[in-house]
Amino acid sequence: MNSLVRAGFSFAKNAVVSTSIRSISITRQLNLKELRERTEGSTLVVEGVTVPSPRTNLLVRAEDLAGFEPSEGTAEKPCYMCSLGLDVKHTDVLILSQFVRSDGCMLPRRITGLCKRQQKKIGKLVTMAQKAGLMINLTPANCQKDPKKRRLYKKFNTYFDEKTIFMWRIPKPTDRFKR
Amino acid sequence: MSAVKRVQQWATFARTWHVFDCKWQDPYESAGVIKKYLMGLHKPIYHPMNDCGDVVVCINSREIALRGNDWRQRAYFHHTGYPGGATWTLAWELHSKDPTMIIKKAVYRALKGNLQRRHTMERLLIYPGETIPDDIKQNITNQIRQIRLVPTRLDHIPEEEVQKYPKVMEYPEDYVLK
Fold it and tell me: How many CB pairs under 8 A join A and B?
């Protein structure tokens, strides 16, 4: 009986309160925003400030480069990392740090806009860079960032081989008995 | 004989001292390179019966890098000869006990197991840090090129260089920065 009442109460609360709050937006939607918190006396002010995207003038796309030929035949357009065709290694921290939030978590695919394969690859490269201690300012808070401060086998230098990322994608052997 | 040729002649017959910086290098990859200089395989006069090998001084052997999970998966086997005397030491355990041992064993294994091996190993000097004794330092005339690039940490790259670096990922319009 008690749980029934609670469920009914929460449903009513959701129907009344949350939708009405969510529909209000003071600032413009669809713009890059940054949440800023500041205290004025005893009140905490949280505001979403519209900010310009950092370093937009340095954005590199394959379409803008000289000698770009769009691939014909396939209906699906390759993602921007596939069309750039960069050979990214786990030591390229200046590239990998763009796909990472400030707390060191990998951004989801709806934000990075990568294809599934590239998203998986970049995610693993980020993990490799963090494990090797190359991005210690962009590493989750719960891990010991500097390898020198880590324990046991983690305290020594480690490098990774990028070939091991897609190890399981071995092409199937052709059927020799197929007629 | 020109002056350059004459010096080349001397250098071939002299015992040259090389230095190799092991920082962020794979010991098993670099053992192949060190072996070449220790045995004198890089010289045109090489023959297994002539003693033309050089001296290699390895520095920063504490800073070597192993691949993937090798630190906890690679084991070094030793047997005392008595029953039950077998021990398996993991790479990180061995390295924390003696930071010169892994590179020494790697070179020892890369060399061929003949009677010359112990004598060739005498010409390999390994130091865990950057400091070399002065009497050894004054002999060094050459540096062996490193195999892997030493990676740079993101927080060691200056801020203006990070800001100038080209950008690949663009945030979507409705993203809230974190």
Answer: 125
Q: Give the three-state DSSP class for A43.
A: strand
Q: Where are the domains of chain A?
A: 86-164
Residue among A34, A84, A111 whose CB faces B172 most closely: A111
pLDDT for B13-42, tens place per residue? 999 999 999 999 999 999 999 999 999 999
* Contact with chain B for residue A156, Cβ under 8 A: yes
Q: Do the Cβ atoms of B153 and A29 come within 8 Å?
A: no
Q: What is the CATH number of domain A86-164?
A: 4.10.640.10
Q: How far is A7 from chain B (nearest CA, A)?
A: 32
**B52-82 residue pLDDT tens:** 999 999 999 999 999 999 999 999 999 999 9
Q: Is the CB of residue A97 less than 8 Å away from at least one CB of chain B?
A: yes
According to CATH, the superfamily of the domain at B3-71+97-146 is Ribosomal protein L13 (3.90.1180.10)
Structural domain boundaries in chain B: 3-71+97-146
